[in-house]
């Protein structure tokens, strides 16, 4: 299955039933929400337990209803702290398999590591897909230049819009007739694209090699839009951010930021970094493998601001950097793409 909606030779795939379980936190269903937003044509409905308080606005379907309406795969689209597959999720995964659905998951705990789930898949001849399984054969990065053009989204923190920005850039470039491909590095992106490597499941020495693998040489002059992860300023996740900067060999960077955030996610003692310091740190790291890298824009997540404040802060930050600044969800990315194309003429 590809990001263009084509189906590869795998049994799992759309149409999807998006599993929300007992979720009560909007951020915990970002995998399901990402699929519903970027691939709505693939999503038939949602499956929620009675105590679930969040919704995607899709029809609530029982497992047998979903199967009858044509669903092929139930995607576990809700995550808890640590990505644990608790008893409820295990029971619901088995029930989905018994209803005739394949099951896909982005949790750290793997479907394939749970004997009861594996047994249910086998007796029903259904497939399991773990999006957070890196797979074998990832090489060590070598830093050698390769053909093609690459843009990497980087962030001041985790969960600030790096995936959404990369997907929006891909969509805009394709609409303008430019070859462009989203390259997924996280579980949600992988389920959206149908391919990729979950870099947070890769042994540290191989993260840069994983980035090289998902964005190989391309002779068509097109763009790879590589999904960034973490932040160089997050004590927990800076390592994966650095590996992506080196392995991506980006020609261009887009800095993603949530202006209402006051501290690093999960670490209240660490404030969000200064935007200019963050941009310079990312550029400095990227220059190791591509000395010509340049910033082409700022992407803000302004969902916590009124529209007039969002417009004002985009204008102020854009002026600070001398770069276009937009919210990809509410404003689009057309000014970023204009600047990208102007900065890298054929």
Task: Summarize the structure in words.
With 346 residues, the protein is an alpha/beta fold. 33% of the residues lie in helices and 17% in strands. Strands 7-8-6-9-12-13 form a six-stranded parallel sheet, with helices on both faces. A five-stranded parallel sheet has the order 2-1-3-4-5, with helices on both faces. A two-stranded antiparallel ribbon has the order 10-11. Strand 4 (102-105), helix 4 and strand 5 form a beta-alpha-beta unit. The longest helix has 15 residues, at 307-321. The radius of gyration is 20 Å and the shape is globular.
What's a quick, concise take on this entry?
The protein has 11 helices and 13 strands.
Main features:
single chain, alpha/beta, Rossmann fold, 11 helices
Kindly state the mean pLDDT as a whole number?
92
CATH superfamily of the largest domain: P-loop containing nucleotide triphosphate hydrolases
Q: Given the C-alpha coordinates, what overall shape results?
A: globular
CATH hierarchy, class of the largest domain: Alpha Beta
Question: Helix tally?
Answer: 11
Q: Please give the largest β-sheet.
A: 6 strands, parallel
Largest sheet, order of strands side by side? 7-8-6-9-12-13
CATH architecture of the largest domain: 3-Layer(aba) Sandwich
What is the percentage of strand-forming residues? 15-25%
CATH level 3 topology of the largest domain: Rossmann fold
Share of helix, binned: 25-40%
Ranges where pLDDT stays below 50 over 5 or more residues in a row are: 1-8
Report the C-alpha radius of gyration, rounded.
20 Å
Total number of strands: 13
Q: What is the element string, with H for helices and E for strands?
A: EHEHEHEHEEHEHHEHEEEHEHEH
Which structural class matches the secondary elements?
alpha/beta
Distance between the terminal alpha carbons, to the nearest Å?
30 Å
- The total tally of domains equals 2
Domain D-glutamate N-acetyltransferase-like C-terminal: 140-337
Domain D-glutamate N-acetyltransferase-like N-terminal: 56-132
InterPro entries: DgcN-like, DgcN-like_C, DgcN-like_N, P-loop_NTPase
